[in-house]
Amino acid sequence: MKLLGAIEAGGTKFVCGIGHEDGSIIDRVSFPTTHPEETMAQVFQYFEGKNVEAIGIGSFGPIDPVIGSPTYGYVTTTPKPFWSQYNLVGAVREKIDVPIGFDTDVNGAALGEYKWGAAQGLDSCLYITVGTGIGAGAVVGGTLIHGLSHPEMGHIYVRRHEQDTFAGACPFHGDCLEGLAAGPAIGSRWGRPAVELAPDDLAWEIEAHYLAHALMSYVLILSPQKIVMGGGVMKQSHLFPMIRTKLQELLKGYVQHASLTADIDSYIVPPQLGDNAGLAGSIALASMALAGK
Amino acid sequence: MKLLGAIEAGGTKFVCGIGHEDGSIIDRVSFPTTHPEETMAQVFQYFEGKNVEAIGIGSFGPIDPVIGSPTYGYVTTTPKPFWSQYNLVGAVREKIDVPIGFDTDVNGAALGEYKWGAAQGLDSCLYITVGTGIGAGAVVGGTLIHGLSHPEMGHIYVRRHEQDTFAGACPFHGDCLEGLAAGPAIGSRWGRPAVELAPDDLAWEIEAHYLAHALMSYVLILSPQKIVMGGGVMKQSHLFPMIRTKLQELLKGYVQHASLTADIDSYIVPPQLGDNAGLAGSIALASMALAGK
Fold it and tell me: Which residues in chain A are contacts of B256 at CB distance < 8 A?
């Protein structure tokens, strides 16, 4: 079977791996994201002699994923030191001459869950990660969403929870979804990390409120056949039933579909690929690149 | 050139027409939407002897556009008397044995603008109508958005304008976008029809606030390459510059793209197909059906 390379380029760490076209992963390593030169040297060292036939890169953003654009393949306006306007695809291409797939980490994860995970056999799905930041990617009619650039679904505005007085932590928008509901926002609002809060703490009621409001917009705009929720904050599994109930309250029965009523427990789910969702997503991007898509 | 039939099935009126695969329309009639039997009799009378090779139907909703579903082709849970659970495609198929394309009126209009109008040459666009109700359709990577069913973008929640005390008029959600910003909501809030309000009335500042908030979500979730705004309320053309400015204020420069900065005047535009956007959309649906897509 053909060997595919995967790079999950995160703002905190890089994960590199090797896998097959069936989504299986046979090797993985990870190292901290530091200066591009240092980090990329580790990437090249890892892939040396591995003979991969394509590489998929699921990257932190914002990025330019638009093929034909002068800055295609770049990490663009990230506040992360040294990585702004960094030509990530160009750097890889210079060292490893194989087809390269490039997209956001969350579009990659959405593609992975669509091909091999929770959304297998469907033609649409949404993947959202709630962690240090909030991001989401989506497959529509078998295709990843692109347009002007890529989705930035973590920055939509949501209605404030009545009991929430926290100002919001997004450096751009203040109290957008990410500013109110990402891990650091929870930590700042309550003065301690989210993991230290009891499951019946008001913190989770507020968190579920914001995430359900986000899902309401995603459902009404994209009508995805499956919603996969990953990331560190979603390890708090008691959030899932709370989010499902709140989403139903918001929809008020307007969209008639069993996935939103009787079957909602299998509609909003954790990643089936677990902690490999990101890396498998990059394998999926490599597989698409190999197929010339 | 092949003759294509178009049915723009609206909640107030039906428009039927004949056109070609280049989007040109050579004939059109319209009549009020009454009882299905009466209205459909007029549809069949119109198409008799016209020898169309396919028919496209852009319908008011909610509908079931999912091919293979037991209720495919139905108008589903509409509050409109007599039309709930009406098998619209089935009724047409019984009388006219040609390929039939079926989608929401707004998905049809989005497809029309994508093929022949404001979004020609791009691979994504969003069409929103603001009139008696609010609805939107979108093309992503050349494909209309479907999933569980079709988008219901008019019912997203948006942040309230600080000076707005109107409760909202949506029978399902109260103060969702449609409940706050459709024509009837404007009329109820101010005690007179929108057309009677002066361009510098606070009404328009509030209207632009809600529509810009909706566009903020659409842009961050779909990243469309063009936004086309039609419908009765958007005939108030002074809304366009207000919406553009407010959207830029909300984005705060987060998404870096000329379409959202220097070129925003050509990014958010009225339908290029004008009042034919809906009918041309149905022609586009017919054309897709003929091609077997």
Answer: 62, 76-77
CA distance from start to end of chain B: 20
Q: Collapsing DSSP states into helix, strand and coil, what is residue B141?
A: coil
- Chain A closest-CA separation from residue B17 CA (Å): 29
* Tens digit of each residue's pLDDT (9 = 90 or more) over A124-156: 999 999 999 999 999 999 999 999 999 999 999
Tell me if A145 and B223 make a contact (CB, 8 A cut-off). yes
Query: Where do we find the tokens 């989210």?
Result: A194
Measured between beta carbons, which residues in chain B are less than 8 angstroms from residue A260? 148
Closest partner residue to A172 (CB to CB) among B173, B224, B254 is B254
Testing the interface with A: which of B107, B161, B178, B217 to mutate, by most A Cβ within 10 A? B217
Whole-angstrom distance, CA of residue B215 vs CA of residue B125: 12
Q: How is residue B154 written in tokens?
A: 């008019």
Is B220 in Cβ contact with A254 (below 8 Å)? Answer: no
Locate the DSSP E strands across chain A.
4-9, 13-19, 25-32, 54-59, 74-75, 86-87, 100-104, 125-130, 134-140, 143-144, 227-230, 268-269
Q: B100-104 and A268-269 as β-strands: parallel, antiparallel, unpaired?
A: unpaired
Q: Band of the pLDDT at B10, cuts 50, 70, 90?
A: very high
Q: Do B254 and A147 touch (CB under 8 A)?
A: no
CA B160 – CA A281 distance, rounded (Å): 38
Q: State pLDDT tens for residues A243-281.
A: 999 999 999 988 889 999 999 999 999 999 998 889 999
Q: Nearest Cα to B118, choosing from B230, B232, B204, B234?
A: B230
Distances (CA, A) of B63 to A69, B100, B231: 38, 15, 20
Count of A–B CB contacts within 8 Å?
Answer: 139
**Coil, strand or helix: which one is B185?**
helix
Helices (H), A80-201: 88-95, 105-116, 177-181, 183-190
What pTM did the predictor assign? 0.96
Q: Given the structure tokens 């897709």, which residue do they identify?
A: B288
Among B146, B250, B256, beta carbon nearest to A223: B146
Question: Which domains does chain B carry?
Answer: 4-104+274-290 (3.30.420.40), 118-269 (3.30.420.40)
Taking CA atoms, A40 is separated from A26, A31, A37, A78, B122, in Å, by 21, 10, 5, 17, 35
Q: Which residues from B are below 8 Å from A158, CB to CB?
A: 157
**C-beta atoms of B143 and A143 within 8 A:** yes
